[in-house]
Design goal:
With 327 residues, this protein is an alpha/beta fold. It has 11 helices and 15 strands. Strand 10, helix 6 and strand 11 form a beta-alpha-beta unit. The N terminus and C terminus are likely disordered. It binds glutamine. Glutamine binds next to loops.
Length: 327
Amino acid sequence: MKKALVLALAGAMSLSLMACGSSASSTESATEAPAAETAAEETTEASAEAASEEQENEAAAFTTLTEGVLTVGTNAEFPPFEYVGDDGEPDGFDIALIKAIGEKMGIEVQVENMEFDSLVTSIGSKIDVAIAGMTVTEERQASVDFSDSYYDAVQSVIVPADSEIATIEDLQGLKIGAQLGTTGEFIIEDDIEGAEAATYNKAVDAVNDLINGKLDAVIVDRNPASVFAEKFPDDVKALNGEDFGFAVEQYAIAVPKGDTALLDAINAALAEVQEDGTFDALVAQYIEEGDASDEAASTEEASEEATEAAADETTEEAAAEATSAAE
Ligand code: GLN
């Protein structure tokens, strides 16, 4: 809340500075302005310029643990956001996203794979930032700041394929698995009466224990839950957490608390990546690609729509030309 207000104020300030700058320079070109007024305008312009220069310098002056390198922590056990690729290196949507952000920032990105539960405490000492499908929570905000959020998620409930579990009441008193230090674990501990949380460093190990009959359910974010459920379709199914009353969560990049220079640089680069289409291309490549039949259908639809749109445009253009020719 407080942070949002501060950001809004900062935005309003830079807007008013821009407004000052432009009104001052337009007065300057009006040669007939009375001398006194012109002098006043010039002073305003000068101070506005000084202030905005200062702001620009501030925005550029972020520092990292190693100069020229953005050291990024992740936990590559969370497909499709992060996983270990065929070459043994972390890959996935988040990894591609932070590399695109690093490119906009003009800095080399180096990814460190570590346990999810160590990410927040490593920020500022071992890593500059963390990207790990990490949900913005008040608890984490006590020790780190978050970038603008880039993805909405909700927890899923993975249960045995033949289970009749369907509501949060059905989960009461059960033994439920989750990844250590995740919002899935917090839900089991805080929101499900009498439930026992069994925590794992890798969510997939919890799913294996579910299949082996050692757990009654697993709570993990929706996208990895679908990936795990698709791996073992005969054994488990993933249920939508919204049917259990779980809240929508926002993923964001965690940065050192109070490091506004780095935060601003990351937010600016994230906005650029979103505006130039890179972000949507990565969503299509890493997140939507999962379901092949869906993809085929949507690609067909998209190309049909594109053809229709093109046809419409041609007709409209032709009509416009015809009208202007008639005039
Ligand atoms: N979104 C969950 C959280 O932030 C899980 C993230 C993860 O396991 N990588 O706690």
